[in-house]
Task: structure prediction
Amino acid sequence: MSATTEPAIGVIGGSGLYELEGLERVERVRLETPFGDPSDAFITGELAGRRMVFLPRHGADHRLLPHELNYRANVWGMKKLGVDRLISVSAVGSLREEIEPGHLVLVDQFIDRTRHRPVTMFGDGVVVHVPLADPVCSPLRTKLYELRAVTDTTVHNGGTYLCMEGPQFSTRAESLLYRQWGCHVIGMTNMPEAKLAREAEICYVTVALATDYDCWRAPDEDVSVEEIIAVLKANVERAKALLKAYVEVAAPASTCEMCGTAAEQGLMTPRDRIPPDRRRELAPIFDRFLP
Result:
């Protein structure tokens, strides 16, 4: 690790999750990144003897729209602070009858419909093509599913997350189309987050909190912010219980080779031709396998 030798478990909190209770030895860390400012200060600490790094995705006072988030800075900062497993907690709308408001979904696939967001930390003299056929870390998702009983609700193992640009919710035509595509939930924030985590060689998983049925159902069941917030509060507590249960049994470090070597395997540019300034900027990623 470039900033520390001890791996950490990272958590990015979405709408409704702005802090992690129970952290000890808490510090607020502000980082300057090659990509600008992250969403907020990173909160570091210990939980059940494990190093933790937490970041409120929209800022502690929820001031950033989904397309305004600096996804590259957020993920770069997690890597800099030694994170090797990243759990993304995200509010979503359900596109399936069986995924009821209040349920959790451990997503395993994404469809990216965003349009205005930088999607890679590479470029400017560095070419890397990471594999993304399976964008979620399977061992991490499996372990979370094994702990589902602590949530006291239904947890769906797998599902496709449609990431829309936002900040408006879907039209009814869009919602019906995404159902035809076979999508299970819809949100605005997990792309390009998942892509960047793979570039950073971080194991990544989404815990999606279903808050509503989007707008594909009858018109009298259209999404409202008030209803979303009510369900979201309960789901955030379930997500916290799942996070705590995972941390209590988590291994000291990730052993996932697929996620942990993605950038090394995808590097196309000869190592001696990488521009020195880009080598320095990408040191949190490259230090592991470049001299």
Remarks:
- The chain has a mean pLDDT of 93.
- The chain has nine helices and eleven strands.
- The CA atoms of residues 215 and 222 lie 5 Å apart.
